[in-house]
């Protein structure tokens, strides 16, 4: 039984280790592999031509000394990659066969012959390079039975290219003798693209990859670029290689066919968006029209599109990347998603107003302060000058905040206000800081007052009142306030909170608080410096920086601001305001209305009134899922990720709280990480408002969100907060550093995460911060210390074989293994980064969704395998699919899941065993 299953667990090798029959029904009957011995050599093709195919930056090294200039089938047979060797033989013979034919039967144009010869010379160069790599790939597996690493993925990509080349060669062989060689142009283009052009780039990339392999110690994934001459060289070459051939008609060649169309569509959209973005046209309508026209133009001419894209990616412009990716948040996309996505009972944006959280832990209480908005150390005054912020500033602000919100009643608030003001007078700070603080305090004071008044009316306890029932917490207990927000599309949420403040004050505080308010305002004249209404304040306009800086309770989520497809470049970012506290935007998604959940106020109440707690018949859920969306830290939102969140809410039947953390580059690290942590603790403390008992709490995120999920868990360990019961990181980035890895080499032809885009995200999120920040475990969990990682809760990692970030997953899994932390890592094939966002589009992405879902279930129900030590490998069955008479595409089949054991046991390779997958409750599989 074990043996049988072991056989099932194949590494990510392509279909049957052979090039499959060409997909086209016109496949030649004689497209059988030819034996190398019967291959005639073309007259022009030497086995090792010296000429480089194109002027590309990296110098081509000589053939490896240890290798013969040709690689025979028997050489390949000794490696695990015999299938790649066979592909080379097949393509090589197809190439030679066609060359021979066209040499003997010249046709009116010899361009196809040129293409074939060029292809052949690329092939003979590429084969030994691949062979060299194939001989060492297994050194980089994180486990002998878990055959995944970036080097393997590169070889697989070569194979995918060869497969499509072979298809063209076979078609050519079949049709070349026909009088009407109708598909001549198509065949020629296919040979030219996959052969002459792509193989030549693969030659360059393989050469760079081999250089990388030479400096990468076995079993390691990363090499830091800085300070390593070879790595720097590889990196620079990677930047300058002309990769246009990967972004044109053949974009996404390494994915399954359904995904290829999608990638091409996204790239067309990106190219035309780029045109519109950089156009000087003012009229939005004309801009829209010209963009639609360029989309048509690019769809018809993929070559021009590719050039445009490569040029755009090289610019490394975070604002552009952000604007384009944020199209998913556009009104159009939102409306479309509203129609297409399943409906759920609760889908609501909430704001958590930052205040000190009191978090009960077994050893006592923990006070978690809200993240500070804006960068410490720098203050841009509204009159323009920039000056440093004194360290006293933040501590004063925190303390004042804490005191004001702990006040029990208007009288006490009044007294606290005076005390704070007195302290401020004595504080040795600059006039600009003083001015900002005074204004900030004024707003805090106003808010605290409204909170008290609103609580008096609604009967809900204020933070201070809550505290009064718990004397021990009296000092610090201020409950983060929850503000319900609209569900109206295209509602600008930026000023939601401010409006809510005004509305709530007007409608709820009413006359009862008016007198107090007046008295307080009179008593605190020094705090009233800038009481201008903040409602219509643009968030990132440079001119308004001063104003933005002093408005403490505007929404913290400053990133995603492209409410409609306006094609307008965002204003230059100027979010360098004076540190302040900000409200954190979150979205609550539930399939049901659980009892005790905070729901919108009753009909007729002010729109932004404080939500009420409702009784329904549905008992609170036991679990809670706190989610962080991806988007390269620059873009996207909980809304754009509803594509799968709504399904999760239904399929998992737990409330999901998705955090709309602040986005880069306006808010750089550590803002997002801090906000996520704060929102997580807030959710624990207010679980009942979310409709859950929070018996089991999971954190999950995809991509950049996966990074934040792990970061939150690590911060829990460091701060002593209750750690989540399980962590889920789907294709995460875990080493946010300018570092090379084998899978990052895939960025050269990745449609979504090209090298330029990865660098852009890095620049956007980390910016010019001190280098030491790169080793911060909250930024790069991969860099956390052993002792910290050893305490991490069970971690589920899902990587993608063709993803440039695959090594982030593998390297982290390998560290978890080394410290004996329980984890589960799986690698899915053939689908692009961000696959959860494309979950309904293809069979493979659906399967990926199902796989992630089953892992989440395992965590929620606590059915993770308990045996220790255990490395569990099994393959998840894919859902049945119709093959429509064609060879089933099995290339994505090998999905392996590896579970790592817990405790301090070091897991050795001899403890490997295979077991059947655990029974999955109604997962639909
Ligand atoms: C040799 C290379 C060396 C490189 C060294 C650099 C190393 C740098 C290391 C770390 C830096 C940080 C890396 C950050 C990683 C980011 C991970 C990360 O978060 O990735 C996400 C990025 C956004 C995105 C791609 C995604 C998922 C879904 C995608 C969206 C689906 C549809 C969306 C279209 C725009 C819709 C168009 C609709 C319109 C109406 C036509 C689309 C494509 C937007 C983008 C997202 C995954």
UniProtKB/TrEMBL annotation:
Q: Does the keyword Membrane apply?
A: yes
Q: Name one GO cellular component term.
A: caveola
| Hormone-sensitive lipase N-terminal domain segment(s) | 93-361
Biased composition (Basic and acidic residues) is annotated at 493-503
Could you list this entry's UniProt keywords, alphabetically sorted: Cell membrane, Cholesterol metabolism, Cytoplasm, Hydrolase, Lipid degradation, Lipid droplet, Lipid metabolism, Membrane, Phosphoprotein, Steroid metabolism, Sterol metabolism
InterPro entries in alphabetical order:
AB_hydrolase_3, AB_hydrolase_fold, HSL_N, Lipase_GDXG_HIS_AS, Lipase_GDXG_put_SER_AS
Q: Which residues form the Alpha/beta hydrolase fold-3 domain?
A: 625-836
Q: Quote the subcellular location field of this record.
A: Cell membrane; Cytoplasm, Cytosol; Lipid droplet; Membrane, Caveola
According to UniProt, this protein's pathway is: Lipid metabolism; Glycerolipid metabolism; triacylglycerol degradation
Any single GO BP term: cholesterol metabolic process
EC no. given is 3.1.1.23, 3.1.1.79
| Annotated active site | 703
Q: Which Pfam families match?
A: Abhydrolase_3, HSL_N
Reaction equation(s) it catalyzes? a diacylglycerol + H2O = a monoacylglycerol + a fatty acid + H(+); all-trans-retinyl hexadecanoate + H2O = all-trans-retinol + hexadecanoate + H(+); 2,3-di-(9Z)-octadecenoyl-sn-glycerol + H2O = 2-(9Z-octadecenoyl)-glycerol + (9Z)-octadecenoate + H(+); 1,3-di-(9Z-octadecenoyl)-glycerol + H2O = 1-(9Z-octadecenoyl)-glycerol + (9Z)-octadecenoate + H(+)
Region feature (Disordered)? 1-71, 456-519, 864-925
Low complexity bias (residue ranges)? 21-38, 460-473, 504-519
Gene Ontology terms, MF aspect? monoacylglycerol lipase activity; sterol ester esterase activity; triacylglycerol lipase activity
| Nucleotidyltransferase found in the keyword field | no
Biased composition, class Pro residues, residue ranges: 916-925
On the tree of life, the source organism's domain of life is: Eukaryota
Q: Which family does it belong to?
A: Belongs to the 'GDXG' lipolytic enzyme family.
- UniProt xrefs under PANTHER family: HORMONE-SENSITIVE LIPASE, TRIACYLGLYCEROL LIPASE
Describe the protein's quaternary organization and the partners it interacts with.
Answer: Monomer and homodimer. Interacts with CAVIN1 in the adipocyte cytoplasm. Interacts with PLIN5.
Q: What is this protein called?
A: Hormone-sensitive lipase
Q: State the taxonomy lineage.
A: Eukaryota, Choanoflagellata, Craspedida, Salpingoecidae, Monosiga
């Amino acid at each position: 039984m074990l043996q049988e299953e072991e056989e099932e667990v194949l590494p990510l090798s392509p279909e049957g280790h052979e090039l499959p029959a060409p997909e086209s029904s016109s496949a030649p009957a004689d497209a059988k592999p030819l034996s190398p011995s019967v291959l005639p050599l073309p007259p022009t093709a030497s086995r090792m031509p010296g000429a480089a195919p194109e002027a590309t930056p990296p110098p081509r090294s000589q053939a490896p000394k240890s290798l013969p200039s040709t690689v025979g089938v028997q050489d390949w047979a000794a490696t695990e990659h015999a299938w790649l060797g066979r592909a080379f033989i097949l393509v090589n013979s197809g190439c030679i066969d066609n060359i021979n034919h066209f040499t003997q039967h010249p046709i009116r144009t010899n361009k196809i012959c040129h293409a074939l010869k060029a292809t052949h010379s690329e092939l003979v160069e590429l084969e030994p390079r691949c062979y060299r790599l194939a001989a060492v790939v297994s050194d980089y597996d994180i486990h002998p039975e878990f055959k995944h690493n970036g080097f393997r993925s590169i070889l697989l990509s070569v194979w995918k290219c060869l497969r499509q080349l072979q298809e063209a060669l076979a078609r050519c062989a079949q049709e070349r003798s026909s009088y009407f060689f109708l598909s001549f142009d198509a065949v020629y283009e296919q040979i030219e693209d996959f052969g002459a052009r792509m193989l030549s780039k693969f030659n360059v990339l393989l050469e760079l990859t081999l250089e990388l392999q030479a400096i990468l110690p076995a079993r390691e994934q990363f090499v830091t670029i800085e300070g390593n001459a070879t790595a720097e060289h590889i990196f620079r070459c990677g930047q300058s290689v002309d990769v246009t051939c990967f972004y044109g008609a053949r974009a996404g060649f390494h994915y399954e066919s359904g995904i290829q169309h999608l990638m091409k569509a996204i790239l067309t959209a990106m190219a035309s968006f780029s045109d519109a973005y950089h156009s000087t046209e003012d009229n939005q309508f004309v801009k829209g029209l010209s963009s639609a026209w360029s989309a048509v133009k690019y769809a018809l001419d993929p070559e021009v599109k590719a050039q445009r894209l490569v040029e755009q990616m090289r610019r490394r412009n975070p604002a552009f990347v952000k604007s384009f990716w944020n199209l998913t948040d556009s009104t159009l996309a939102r409306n479309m998603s509203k129609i297409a996505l399943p409906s759920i009972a609760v889908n609501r944006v909430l704001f958590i107003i930052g205040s000190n959280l009191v978090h009960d832990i077994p050893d006592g209480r923990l006070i978690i302060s809200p993240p500070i908005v804006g960068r410490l150390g720098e203050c841009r005054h509204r009159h323009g000058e920039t000056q440093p912020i004194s360290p006293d500033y933040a501590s004063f602000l925190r303390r004042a905040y804490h005191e004001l919100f702990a006040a029990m009643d208007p009288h006490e608030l009044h007294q606290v206000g005076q005390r704070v003001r007195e302290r401020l007078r004595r504080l040795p700070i600059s006039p600009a800081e003083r001015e900002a603080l005074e204004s900030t305090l004024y707003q805090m004071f106003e808010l605290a007052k409204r909170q008290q008044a609103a609580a008096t009316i609604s009967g809900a306890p204020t933070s201070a009142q809550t505290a009064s029932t718990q004397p021990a917490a009296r000092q610090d207990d201020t409950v983060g306030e929850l503000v319900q927000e609209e569900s109206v599309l295209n509602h600008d949420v930026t000023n939601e909170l401010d409006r809510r403040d005004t509305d709530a004050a007007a409608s709820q505080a009413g006359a009862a608080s008016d007198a107090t308010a007046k008295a307080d305002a009179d008593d605190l004249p020094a705090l009233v410096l800038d009481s201008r209404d903040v409602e219509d304040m643009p968030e990132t306009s440079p001119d308004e920086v001063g104003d933005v800086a002093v408005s403490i309770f505007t929404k913290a989520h400053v990133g995603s601001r492209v409410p409609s497809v306006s094609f307008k470049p965002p204003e230059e970012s100027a979010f360098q305001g004076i540190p302040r506290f900000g409200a954190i935007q979150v979205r609550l998604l539930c399939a049901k209305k659980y009892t005790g959940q905070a729901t919108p106020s009753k009909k007729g109440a002010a729109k932004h009134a404080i939500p009420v707690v409702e009784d329904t018949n549905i008992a609170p859920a036991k679990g809670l899922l706190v989610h962080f969306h991806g988007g390269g830290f620059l873009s996207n939102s909980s809304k754009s990720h509803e594509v799968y969140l709504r399904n999760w809410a239904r399929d998992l039947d737990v409330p999901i709280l998705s955090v709309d953390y602040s986005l880069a580059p306006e808010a750089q690290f550590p803002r997002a990480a801090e906000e996520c942590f704060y929102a997580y603790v807030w959710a624990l403390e207010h679980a009942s408002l979310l409709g859950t008992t929070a018996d089991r709490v999971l954190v999950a995120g995809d991509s950049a969100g996966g990074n934040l999920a792990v970061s939150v868990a690590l911060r829990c360990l460091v701060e002593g907060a209750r750690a989540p019961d399980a962590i889920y990181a789907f294709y995460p980035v875990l080493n946010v550093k300018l570092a090379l890895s084998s899978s990052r080499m895939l960025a050269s032809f990745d449609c979504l995460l090209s090298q330029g885009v990865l660098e852009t995200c890095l620049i956007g999120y980390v910016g010019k911060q001190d280098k030491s920040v790169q080793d911060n475990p909250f930024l790069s969990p991969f860099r956390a210390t052993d002792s910290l990682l050893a305490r991490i809760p069970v971690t589920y990692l899902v990587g993608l074989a063709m993803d440039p970030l695959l090594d982030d997953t593998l390297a982290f899994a390998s560290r978890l293994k080394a410290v004996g932390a329980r984890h589960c890592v799986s690698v899915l094939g053939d689908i692009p980064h961000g696959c959860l966002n494309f979950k309904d589009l293809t069979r493979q992405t659906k399967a990926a969704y199902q796989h992630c879902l089953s892992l989440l279930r395992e965590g929620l129900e606590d059915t993770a395998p308990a045996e220790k030590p255990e490395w569990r490998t099994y393959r998840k069955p894919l859902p049945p699919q119709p093959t429509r008479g064609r060879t089933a595409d099995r290339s994505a089949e090998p999905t392996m899941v590896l579970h790592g054991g817990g405790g301090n046991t070091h897991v050795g390779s001899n403890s490997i065993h295979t077991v059947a997958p655990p029974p999955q409750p109604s997962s639909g599989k």
